[in-house]
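Hi support team,

I've been running sequence recovery on a batch of backbones for a student project. Most finish fine, but this one hangs at about 90% for roughly twenty minutes before it completes. I'm not sure whether the input is malformed or the queue is just slow. I've pasted the structure tokens below so you can try to reproduce it. Let me know if you need the job ID as well.

Thanks,
M.K.
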């Protein structure tokens, strides 16, 4: 049955050559990115600190 569908042979010299791996270039160190990182950390930590302070005040000023 294979003889019925066999068309021909592929010439191996026509195969495309495998590309060599080239690592991606890393972005240069940018001072602006670190300031953005600090702002994001502060946006997360400041509300947590306020919440912790509110719970501490509530706990220590609670009268039994």
């Amino acid at each position: 049955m294979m003889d019925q569908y066999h068309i021909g042979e592929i010439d191996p010299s026509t195969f495309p050559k495998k590309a060599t791996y080239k690592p991606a270039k890393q972005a240069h160190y940018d001072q602006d990115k670190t300031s953005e990182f600090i702002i994001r950390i502060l946006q997360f930590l400041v509300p947590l600190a306020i919440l912790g302070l509110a719970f501490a005040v509530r706990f220590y000023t609670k009268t039994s």
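--
Follow-up from support: It reproduced on our side and the slowdown came from queue contention, not your input. Residues 32-63 form one domain. No action needed from you.
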